[in-house]
Amino acid sequence: MKIKKMTVFILLFTVVLASVSSHFLNQTPLTFFVLKNETAGIKAYQVNGYFAVKETDFEELSLSPRQVLDGEKVATDKNLVDLKQWSKSFGRFDFVVGLWNPDIDFVSDWNEFFNSTNNDAVSDLSRLDKRYLALLMKPKLSNGTSNEPVQIKPVKPLATVEPTSVISTKTPTIEPIVRVEILNGCGIKGAADRMAGRITSDRITVKNGGNAVNFAYVHTQVLSATGDVPASLTKALSRLGLADIKGVKSVDVPKDYDVVLIVGKDFRKLKGN
Predict the structure, then answer these.
(1) Could you tell me the pLDDT band of residue 135, with boundaries at 50, 70 and 90?
(2) Which of 44, 111, 112, 230 can bridge 61 by disulfide, Cβ–Cβ 3.0-4.6 Å?
């Protein structure tokens, strides 16, 4: 009698566990970071792969000038270790994929990519893993009967596309992490630390580099290799009242940073000071 009760209990527990596990897998995607080498440069994507009931979601990530340079070096070297390290600046991913061949159109046929035996680098995925995932995932974007490559951008649905093959209209919202070195260029004690504390966020990392070459900076400046000011930094400075900050092209930006922020004497006029 006890054996029967134990058997029933085990069966019930198994059913409940299977149900909970199925729900979790259907709601939680496997995340992939994909670096795609193309003829015109590189592109980075986040791919969310759902099991069975949801379609795979592709999202192109925006890259800062510094990230473009770093990504091109990774693609040239075809170094998976560097690729995994570089992907961490965009967030945490279950898998990292490097597509070195510019002729591969992985978006239009995600399943075929996972079943392929090409030499592109896929971290932590064995051939058996790839085949298993290919059976469980559905491609979201498809070429249909056209020979033209699918572009990842909002477009109107094609009339000839099957109902299950739709073009994503989701606009990428993930901003790259900006690495900032901040310098005191006004001579006000603690100005750099106070500015750093007010602009630091999950998209902006700041390190105090000490004093600038002098304290004669009337206005706050942003130095970068291209002369551009990253969007997330522009927003952060605008909230402090520095809406007219212009970027200055400079070769003096340290390699570990995207920009150098020099705090000028207009620091006294910041909101909240």
Answers:
(1) low
(2) 44
